[in-house]
Amino acid sequence: MGCCQSSPSGDARSDKDQNIYGQGAHHPRSSNGTAGSAGDGGVHAFSEFSLAELKAATNNFSSDFIVSESGEKAPNVVYKGRLQNRRWIAVKKFTKMAWPDPKQFADEARGVGKLRHKRLANLIGYCCDGDERLLVAEFMANDTLAKHLFHWENKTPEWAMRLRVALYIAEALDYCSTEGRPLYHDLNAYRVLFDENGDPRLSCFGLMKNSRDGKSYSTNLAYTPPEYLRNGRVTPESVVFSFGTVLLDLLSGKHIPPSHALDMIRGKNILLLMDSHLEGNFSSEEATVVLDLASQCLQYEPRDRPNTKDLVSTLAPLQNKADVPSYVMLGIPKHEEAPATPQHPLSPMGDACSRMDLTAIHQILVATHYKDDEGTNELSFQEWTQQMRDMLEARKRGDLAFRDKDFKTAIDCYSQFVDVGTMISPTVYARRSLCYLMCDQPDAALRDAMQAQCVYPDWSTAFYMQAVALAKLDMHKDAADMLNEAAMLEEKRQRGGKGS
């Protein structure tokens, strides 16, 4: 997947460069002790895996399980693996000294692991064991963009599908940029993967460097941003340049060096650039828009390139087959999915979340108040400063607004409490998460619910709130898994186990 070198031409590559990642992962410990949560092909909680688990999943890192290998510039390997619960994962194994400092590697992995988006093949975990450094990601079952564009067997992707790929990857980059992780290393057609439904996703592996201080580009120099050749640094503008090369791939069906493509664009030889396998089945007007965008992305001066929001706003209006599933346009079999059924009996909170009854959830959170926060903060006498009193006053105002269903005011007050950072309250995160849901902001709600889980790893309410937010984001399979996870934690607590 993400660690591959791009081929400088459309040459055939080994099968090991295909089928890079796919459906899902199991529920191991997270780095803070909790169980992860996920469904096949969906969004997962971030977890720390043991080396034994990953060895078992990959048959002791058997060569038969390798799905991509990189060259000497970025020596690491990606394996396909299957966990005990039958879910598939992708495991990227670094050389022993790529990341000498385990803390630095873990911190970097956790940073990428905070990202969760349906346009990403998400990072779901990592492993630091002795000299071993491994990343674990969702496995994408339907190959890379490079395979579909350069090495297709039955049919080449139709024009509308190529436009969808361009938009979805632009959306992924824009999301990463918005979340404060704008740097993507070596974006190319091998980093774009297709999930079980044929939807394109951006590999999360490119969000981490190949080593602590290693090269960020392993591609042929002809495809490398000019400023990277000058100073060896990746910038957000470098990522946009690389996106321009992917647009060229989509237009031409070949891997054309940017300088050559720009000569063709300047010469108005647009038809010469277009993929002949499309047999003219594309809109010249749409192709011209994409070509112009590619030309802007490939500008020599970084400041002359568009930003990620520009990419999305340019490509979104070109989508004209929104009702046609990706698997149909790719010509692959439909992914059949059994209806999700709860594996554990649901409590009143679980039932309210399964019905997405926000009013009922509000009533339960008001009644529960802060009893689940007990033990999450122990403050010394010296910490009861004026700042602390102000912070608690902000929380109190938030609680009153929350009780009175003034959710916007509650968000403001809870944000004042959270931003001070002296005291961490999972209940505040859960309440603010519900406020965001009430204000139709499911992305923010999901972030808060994940923060609540980080503070209190075994707290079922954190998982329940994630389930509702995921359902609001139309990630129903993942929502069902989160719901089951929460129910399991509640059941464990009722049996006298730790947490809820």
Account of the protein in words:
With 500 residues, the protein is an alpha+beta fold. It has helices at 51-57, 102-113, 145-150, 159-178, 226-231, 236-252, 258-266, 270-273, 284-297, 308-315, 326-330, 348-354, 358-368, 386-403, 407-420, 426-438, 442-455, 460-472, 476-494; strands spanning 47-48, 66-69, 76-82, 88-94, 120-121, 123-129, 132-138, 192-194, 200-203. The strands form 2 sheets. It has a 6-stranded mixed β-sheet, sandwiched between helices. A 3-stranded mixed β-sheet has the order 5-9-8, with helices on one face. α6 runs antiparallel to α9 (284-297) and α17 (442-455) packs antiparallel against α18 (460-472). The radius of gyration is 24 Å and the shape is globular. Residues 1-42, 338-342 and 378-383 have low confidence and may be disordered.
Helix content: 40-55%
What is the overall number of helices? 19
Please state the average pLDDT score: 81
- Cα radius of gyration in angstroms: 24 Å
Ends: how far apart? 37 Å
> Can you tell me the overall shape?
globular
Q: Outline the low-pLDDT stretches.
A: 1-42, 338-342, 378-383
SSE run: EHEEEHEEEHHEEHHHHHHHHHHHHHHH
Strand content: 5-15%
Count of beta strands: 9
Oligomer: single chain
Helix vs. strand class: alpha+beta
